[in-house]
Amino acid sequence: MFQHAPSSISLIVFSTILFHVSSSPTQNPDPITVQPFRVKSSPPATIPAFPEQSDFSGCPLDLPEVLFHGIKSACSGKKLHRGRCCPVLGAWLYSAYSSTALSRSISAAARNTSSSSAATTPEEDMPLLPDDSETCVDGLGKSLRRRGIELARPNETCDVVYCYCGIRLHPLSCSEAFRVNEEGKLVGDERVDRLETDCLSGSHNNGDRFSPLSGCNKCLNSLYKLNPKRSSGTRNPSKEDRNRTTKMHSKDCVLMGLTWLLAKNRAAYFPTVTSVLRAVMLNQDGEPRSCNLGGDGMPLAVDSSEFSNASSTLLQFPHHMVLFLLYSVITLVVLIRSW
C-alpha cells in the first residue's frame, strides 16, 4: 500500500506543475507603444483642403478621448521625464493639428505660386508661416482641465509643450516632396509613397517581424530624403544665417512628413512617429542619423517602461520552463524508486 503512495503524490505534483505551466504565456506579446484606434483616414495620397472645424476657431484640433488618456499617462505625475512625455505629447499634438496644418500649408503654397517672386525665391528664403502654438496649447489646456488632467510643469515659468518639449505648431512647407494638384489637394511624390511604407508599424506591416528600432531607423532615413537640400553643416560665418534657415526648412520637411502620416492613418503610424520624435527630441542638434541607444542604454524607439515590461514578460516563460523541467526530473526519479 505504502509502496504506491510516493507515485500517487508524484503524479499529483506533476499534474499540478503541468497545469500551472500550461496556463502561463506561451508566446511573447507584441510590444505595446500606443493602442490603435479607429479614425476616419483621408483618401489615399491626398489630404482634404478644408478640415472640419472644432471648438477652437483660432486653432481647429481633432481631440479624441484616447488623446487625453495618452497624454495623461505620459505627462502627468510628480516628475516629468522628457524621453517619455515629450514624444508622446508631440505625436498627439501633431496628430490633432494635422488637418489644420496641412490645409494651411495648401493655402500658403497657393499664395506662393501666385506670387511673382515665388518662381525665383527659394522656399527656405520665404518668410516663416505664422505660429499657432499659443492658441492651440491654450485650447488643449482647457480641454485637459475640463477632464481633471493637469500636466506637470518643470517650473512655474516653463510650460510643458512650448518651453520644456519645444513643440511648435505652425503650417508646414516642403515643396520638394509635396505639391497641390489641380483639384486643390495636397499630394506627395514617390518619396512620400516610400515614407508611408517605411514608417508602418509592425502590426500593420503584413504580419512581418518588426523591430521598433529598425523601423524607427527606416522611417527616419525616409524622412530625410524628403528634402535632399539639407544643410551641409559648414561653419562659414558668412553662411550662418542661410544654414540656420535651411536647417529650419529641413525640420519642416521632417515634421510635414510625420504630420502627413498621422493625418493619413493615425493608428498605423502613431507608434513609429512617436519613436522618431523621441530620437529627434533627445538628439542635441535635432538631426539624429539613427535611432541609436540613449544615455540610459535603451533604444530610443522603445519607452523605458515598455522595455522593462517586455523584458519581464520574456523572462517569465523561461522561468516556468526551468521549474517544469526540474520538477519533472524529480518526479521521474521518485516514480522509478517507488517501483
From TrEMBL:
Pfam family, one: SPARK
Stretch forming the signal peptide: 1-23
Ranges of compositional bias, category Basic and acidic residues: 237-247
Superkingdom per UniProt: Eukaryota
Ranges annotated as biased composition (Acidic residues): 122-132
Keywords, in A-Z order: Membrane, Signal, Transmembrane, Transmembrane helix
Region (Disordered): 112-132, 227-247
Residue ranges of domain SPARK in the record: 57-238
Stretches with biased composition (Low complexity): 112-121
Transmembrane segments: 317-336
PANTHER family cross-referenced by the UniProt entry: GPI-ANCHORED PROTEIN
Protein name as catalogued: SPARK domain-containing protein
